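Protocol step 4 of 6: structure prediction from sequence.
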Amino acid sequence: MSYQNDPETERERLLQQLFARAEPRPQPPASDTEQIRQAVLEEWETVTGRRVWRKRAAFGAAAAAALVAAFVYVGGGSVPTAGPAPLVAHVEQVQGVVTTATGARLGAGSGVVAGTRLDSGEGQIGFRLASGGSLRIAPHSRVVLVGSDEAELLAGALYFDSEDQRTAEFAVITGLARVRDVGTQFLVRLDDTRLDVGVRQGLVNVTRGAVSDTAAAGERLIATQATNDLRRDSISTVGGDWEWAERLAPPFDITGHTLGEFLDWFEAQTGRTVVFADPTTERALRAAVQTGSVEASLMQKLSAVLALNDLSYVLDGERVVIQRQ
């Protein structure tokens, strides 16, 4: 069959001749390539919305790499060997509007790649880290997710909970000091002149130049621009400083879990100690398997779950005392 009688074959022949004559285009600077890759990945995450992040990780990264190559290297030339930035977290929940540096709006289920810069504005957001643990960012905060083991706090506040699932430390970098967890729950708050690190559970190490110190549960370490030291103070492990982070607690579906498992989760999210007024009631009901669905604040969820078991509670300082209705 001749080329004249086969238009598809003729077009293919002409394209081959065209590409054979094309000279490789010069490669762009590495900084430009990375900027394009970051923008493509963030747009990919926004468009895909609530899709499961683990499934998206391999495909999304490959698609972003292909788009970068097509955008930058059309006309020939070698493709850079460096792969796209890895996914380091996915959004567990978001309240209000939280955007990336490129203006992409994050929603529940969105994946986030290393190097993403976030601005929470009036909103707040909770992440499930790829390496384990919960990271939550308060309103009016600016944070860079350097990796699944590190975040840079530029302004505002964040909360980290290792959830006893991690084998590696998690670090928070600020302009005043470096904060490192030792299997714990802690918050970091930064403004123009002061860094405040509060510990709810476990230990946290804070390093500032040649000065290093460790805070335990109920303690805080404070660094200011006026001095080069670290000042120790006390902090309550319930309410107050922690309330914004509690509103971003990871979801807990009670169906199929025991009352005891739910109460353990409640303690971990609020810092409060749960006790039963009557040990006999505790023995009878802690192992009771629950059913149903409750979407509410932590204290409202506690009330609803206890009501399903004919129980109620009263607050006694930092304790929650459970009793029969």
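Step 5 (inspection) to follow. Confidence is low (pLDDT under 50) at residues 28-34, 44-81.
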